[in-house]
Design brief:
heterodimer, A: 377 residues, mainly alpha, 3-stranded antiparallel β-sheet, 15 helices, 3 strands, 3% strand, B: alpha/beta, 6-stranded mixed β-sheet, 10 helices, 29% strand
Chain lengths: 377, 303
């Protein structure tokens, strides 16, 4: 009964806020823009037929059309709209919930009811996530209909964004609640949560960049070492066959250059590891916002490989099949590093991505609850 | 039976400010109990401790038969905080529904009760209006309705007539009397002495975190019961010995013994003293209050 009452109250509080309807209206515009993309036999059209793009690869019925359309949703609409813009609007809307809740004059009446403080705190926290839950749910319904109508795929995995974005938002909201509980100020909650979010984003971006560089160096080392072995074998064979062959000198020079490159890559790799490891370890204990949102892409990806991520990595199967290239070229190494990075992040367990993040959230909420239970109002 | 029976309540804020220093009091069922005290006396702190809003540094005793802080017993307690702020986005009915649900009142009962309470408190026609449109007096009435939504055994009202017009005050007083006849205990916290004097069965006066007086108004003012005889002309010499006090042409005799008064009147008339008036006097609650405040400030003064 208490939870239902708090839930209804939370809905009434949110629906009384103009920002709630503004965010919902903006979501509708985004959905309409998404729905304006359609495919025909010769390519695709945008803005309900105002513009057309002809393509042999992306057209009605092609696997790339599906990859592009679903990919726009999971990689842009969720990643940019839901997890950035809508989240900022949600934080602005909800940052005052707890400061208002514990405000003098309001809290006395609530605390005088036959419900324990800890229960009250957690119920209030859960119902406060309603803003995001409702926004994302309505958004997903729109996207679900668009995807169904445009590519004929009634993909329920689209609704995966509802728990994912809500969980992602809850990491930030937990911090907002703690600050709100201590300062009783909505503005302070918003500002400090914003700073925390930016620091988190910086740390994650730094980790990704350092990881990308170190994996790149590792790929260079491995591919060059492999190549050196092969070249040395060929060189030995050449020496046995014709010791005066003019190619021996060139090949030896090439091997020496490669060894120099390996030494240089190892040196860079060692330097990068010194920076990467502490950041990586620190992130284990912090919420993984980017990777949590990335989970949706895992659930929506096409097993046959026709997805937008593959397009962005240059990992389209048709290209791969055509290629038989030297693995030591810059392009090949970059592509291999990109694949490894993608595999690294996309195979991290749900426990690592969500579990450790929820653990962080639990600690922050535990602190807030402790503060709430002990405080005199 | 005592619905509130607390002893030695202490509250120290941040280890420095002693808000309550060993407060004890009893409130019985079916009575209206008034807690008086100047600003900063610790009245609201005491009420908040009872309502579990503040944790006491030390407390023993019971509230509705359970230790202080026992949450389930709050189901039968109604509370109106002093500076309340109800959710502005809710209508009067929604506010009552919300707090009724938090008090675990089943929906059909609380809906029926909510409308009845709004009618009882003169808010008919305002059921579906947003709280933000209410005047201060109306919000106060709504607050009382909230305190009664769970049909409590004990109603704790912190400054219930604050911001209410004289007509409204009278209605609230009548309501308190009705609650008393229904067998509910009413704990009033107010600084409006005249209001309390009119409705309270018993009062307690708190000053600087200490309980200085407690009892019925009759018990507390009995000591001050006296007759004041105003005379014309010169006061006879013997009056100084016979009367308890002589203030100019006013002769004061403590107590309420009228037979003794008759003989004093006869004595005065026998010595040709003209009596202009005889007034039975008793301390008002305000006098009592001022005396209590004065006692705390000057502990050696007469109580």
């Amino acid at each position: 009964m208490t939870f239902k009452a708090l839930l209804i109250d939370a809905y009434r509080q949110l629906s009384a806020a103009k920002l709630f309807w503004l965010t919902l209206g903006l979501s509708l515009i985004v959905v309409l823009a998404f729905g304006s993309i359609s495919f025909n036999e010769t390519g695709m059209s945008i803005f309900y037929g105002l513009g057309t793009i002809e393509s042999d690869m992306i057209h009605e019925g092609s696997p790339w059309a599906r990859g592009l359309y679903v990919g726009i949703y999971s990689n842009f609409l969720v990643t940019i709209w839901l997890s950035w813009i809508a989240t900022v609007l949600a934080l602005i809307s909800t940052c005052t919930i707890f400061p208002e809740f514990v405000k003098s004059g309001a809290i006395e009446l609530t605390l005088s009811k036959p419900i324990s403080r800890i229960k009250l705190f957690f119920m209030k926290y859960v119902v406060s996530l309603l803003f995001v839950l409702l926004q994302v749910l309505v958004f997903c319904v729109g996207i679900f209909i668009c995807v169904g109508l445009r590519i004929g795929e009634w993909n329920w995995a689209i609704f995966g964004a509802v728990p994912i974005v809500t969980i992602f938002y809850s990491y930030l909201f937990a911090v907002c609640v703690l600050v709100g509980m201590i300062t009783r100020s909505g503005i302070a909650s918003l500002l400090i949560t914003g700073v925390f979010w930016m620091l988190l984003w910086t740390a994650q971006t730094a980790e990704l960049a350092l990881n990308r560089f170190s994996v790149g160096e590792r790929v260079t080392i491995e591919s060059f070492e492999q190549s050196v072995l092969e070249q040395e074998e060929e060189l030995n064979a050449l020496r046995e066959k014709s010791p005066d062959d003019f190619r021996i000198e060139n090949r030896q020079k090439r091997i020496d250059d490669m060894k120099e490159d390996i030494a240089s890559a190892k040196d860079t790799f060692d330097k990068l590891i010194v920076w990467h490891e502490p950041v990586r370890i620190a992130l284990i204990f912090l919420p993984k916002t980017g990777q949590t949102i990335g989970l949706l892409d895992r659930w929506l990806k096409d097993d046959s490989g026709f997805d937008i991520q593959a397009m962005m990595r240059g990992d389209m199967r048709s290209v791969e099949e055509l290629e038989e290239f030297d693995s030591t070229t810059r392009f090949a190494r970059k592509r291999e590093a990109s694949k490894r990075i993608h595999d690294d992040y996309s195979t991290r367990s749900l426990w690592y991505v969500v579990g450790t993040s929820l653990l962080f959230e639990g600690v922050i909420l535990g602190l807030s609850a402790w503060f709430f239970c002990r405080r005199d109002f | 039976m005592a619905v509130i029976d607390i002893h030695g309540v202490e509250k120290t804020y941040k280890g420095k400010i002693h808000a309550l220093r060993g407060v004890s009091l009893e409130v019985h069922d079916g009575e209206i109990f008034g807690l008086l005290g100047p600003n900063g006396a610790g009245k609201s702190t005491l009420v908040k401790i009872l309502m579990t809003v503040i944790n006491a540094s030390k407390v023993s005793g019971t509230f509705l038969g359970h230790p202080i802080g026992h949450r389930p017993s709050l189901k039968k307690v109604g509370y109106l905080p002093e500076h309340h702020k109800f959710p502005q986005y809710l209508t009067a009915i929604q506010v009552l529904q919300f707090y009724g649900a938090l008090s675990k009142v089943p929906k059909p009962i609380r809906t029926k009760r909510a409308y009845a309470l709004l009618e009882r408190l003169g808010l008919t026609g305002w059921e579906k209006k947003k709280v933000s449109t209410f005047s201060k007096g109306m919000r106060q009435r709504l607050g009382i309705a909230i305190a009664l939504i769970n049909d409590p055994d004990v109603v704790v009202l912190d400054e219930p007539t604050d911001g209410v017009d004289p007509v409204g005050r009278r209605e609230i007083r009548d309501l308190l009397a009705e609650l008393k006849t229904e067998g509910k205990a009413v704990f009033l916290n107010s600084h409006l002495l005249s209001e309390l004097e009119m409705v309270c069965d018993r009062v307690a006066i708190m000053v600087k975190g200490q309980m200085t007086m407690q009892g019925t108004i009759d018990e507390l003012t009995r000591e001050s019961t006296r007759f004041e005889i105003n005379v014309k002309g010169e006061v006879p010499d013997w009056a100084e010995q016979t009367f308890d006090d002589v203030r100019g042409t006013t002769l004061v005799k403590h107590g309420d013994d009228t037979s003794q008064l008759q003989s004093l009147i006869d004595q005065l008339r026998a010595t040709n003293v003209t009596i202009s008036s005889i007034e039975p006097k008793r301390e008002s609650l305000e006098d009592l209050f001022m005396r209590a405040v004065d006692y705390i400030d000057n502990p050696g003064s007469v109580r």
